[in-house]
Write a structure and sequence with these properties.
The protein is mainly alpha-helical. It is built from 6 helices and no strands.
């Protein structure tokens, strides 16, 4: 199933890259959490921020599955455009949720914590927005990084 004998199955490189990207994100989340030395109240806000990042990863994963599953189905162009718009709307909503929770978290930080967050908080999301191989970002293990 997947490819010729002796070669990796089709999609396995993509899956490996996605797993590596997810692991890197988990590591960056853990480092930032540790470096910020969050209070209990701030940890709750940080958890909400991470949950929103995971929700974006879930949305990306769902949209990739949807797009793959419709490749073999003939859809009229208007239906394809509607599907694209739905995916973009869902993605925008997820990004707005991240931005809102990130702003709330940032405002809760002390003057000593803000420079750390300033350079790294939004950067956690950039790989997702850049369209990198993030399949599986919504994996429950990401939520466990709190």
């Amino acid at each position: 199933m997947g490819g010729p004998p002796g070669r990796a199955p089709v999609g396995s490189a993509e899956t490996s890259m996605a797993k590596a990207a997810a692991a890197e994100l988990q590591m960056n989340i853990a480092r930032l959490r540790d470096d910020l030395k969050l209070t209990k109240a701030q940890q709750i806000l940080f958890d909400a921020y991470v949950d929103n990042i995971a929700a974006l990863g879930d949305d990306i994963q769902r949209s990739q599955v949807t797009l793959r599953s419709t490749r073999d189905v003939e859809l009229a162009s208007p239906q394809q455009f509607a599907q694209m718009i739905d995916i973009a709307r869902n993605r925008l909503t997820a990004i707005e949720d991240i931005a809102e929770s990130g702003k709330i978290l940032f405002e809760s930080l002390s003057a000593e914590q803000k420079p750390i967050a300033n350079s790294r908080l939004a950067a956690l999301v950039t790989p997702l927005l850049a369209g990198g191989p993030m399949l599986g970002m919504g994996d429950p293990s990401l939520r466990g990084m709190r």
